[in-house]
Amino acid sequence: QVQFVESGGGLVQPGGSLKLSCSASGFPFSAHKMHWYRQAPGKERELVATITSGGKYTTYTDSVTGRFTISRDNAKNTLYLQMNALKSEDTAVYYCYTTFARNYWGQGTQVTVSP
Predict the structure, then answer these.
(1) What is the pLDDT of residues 20-71, one digit of tens each?
(2) Which residues on adjacent β-strands are paired with residue 5?
(3) Which of 21, 33, 102, 110 shows a CA-CA span of 20 to 30 A to 81?
(4) What is the rounded CA–CA span in Å between residue 104 and residue 97?
(5) What are phi and psi of 22, to 5 degrees?
(6) Measured between alpha carbons, how far is 106 from 86 in angstroms, rounded to an integer?
(7) Residue 109, Cβ neighbours under 10 Å: how many?
(8) DSSP 8-state secondary structure symbol assigned to residue 43
(9) b/e string for 79-92 if b means 16 or more Cβ within 10 A?
């Protein structure tokens, strides 16, 4: 029932930008805090950003602060991650998530930052 469809990833040069989207369904999206996570090969999944249910408050991991912006459109059940000044270490599969989903994860979207 819970479904996340992430999109917007791709190959980008260092310093470039991408905007990721997550279309969510199967739960009351507007009532839940949302997160972006990422996972690079051989590494643990990492929390990147969090946004409260109404979009008023956001938090970021230190490595992306000032470069990434999380936002949401509750009318569209969609979560976004604007990524600027991308670095090679941002290369990972990016996932959206809410605790309502327990251990359900979508397919993610691949972001590759390379010259």
Answers:
(1) 999 999 999 999 999 999 999 999 999 999 999 999 999 999 999 999 999 9
(2) 23
(3) 102
(4) 8
(5) -135, 115
(6) 23
(7) 22
(8) S
(9) bbbebeebeeebbb
Q: Looking at this protein, which amino acid is placed at residue 81?
A: L
Q: Tell me: the pLDDT tens digits for 52-66?
A: 999 999 999 999 999
- What residues have CB less than 8 Å from 88, skipping those under 6 apart? 14, 113, 114
Cβ atoms of 48 and 29 closer than 8 Å: no
Q: Quote the strand ranges of the chain, DSSP E.
A: 3-7, 10-12, 18-25, 34-39, 46-51, 58-60, 68-73, 78-83, 92-97, 109-113
Task: List % helix, strand, coil for the chain (3-state, nearest 5).
Answer: 10, 45, 45
